[in-house]
Amino acid sequence: MTEFFQLAQMILVTFVQVVFNPFLWVVMLLVGLQFKRVAQARAELFGGERESVWGSTLKATFYGVIGGLIGSFLMVALGISLSGIGIGTLWIVAIMLMLISPRFLCFAYAGGIISLSYLLFGWPQVNVPELIGLLALLHMIEAILILLVVT
């Protein structure tokens, strides 16, 4: 049980570091600008009063942080390590897919391509089961967040 408390302490310390990371605030600003753009388009199309853009941004950030905490605990519980699964390659392939079409920006697509490439050609060196486990966990957290936000 002490291992669990040590793990929880490490995750919470990292959480506090993330809150004070300027990158989080830049991402929040970008999300807020997206919410503003969507609210303007919705008001032009359907009329009515606009919803609070920054309220929506804070709500999305709050749920995202909670999802991240839950995901962190689940990754440790499932034994998923980020060191051997090629996160950089995953991002590069996902961005390349986005350049084809924005709807292809999906880590599952990128992970599938990377896994298939490794299984067929042996490149890039990735741990396929951990990569697919990470993708499954990310999609599970995403589904929970959608459920929370929509309802």
How does the SSE layout of this entry go?
Layout: H1 2-19, H2 22-46, H3 53-78, H4 87-100, H5 107-121, H6 128-150
Helix pairs in contact: 1-3, 2-3, 3-6, 4-5, 5-6
What would the principal axes of the Cα set say about the shape?
globular
Distance between termini? 35 Å
Q: Specify Rg, calculated over alpha carbons.
A: 18 Å
Beta-strand segment tally: 0
Strand-residue fraction? Answer: under 5%
Number of helices: 6
Q: Report the structural category.
A: mainly alpha
Residue-averaged pLDDT, rounded?
A: 88
Percent range of helical residues: over 70%
SSE pattern: HHHHHH
Number of domains: 2
Largest sheet: none
Brief summary:
This protein has helices at residues 2-19, 22-46, 53-78, 87-100, 107-121, 128-150.
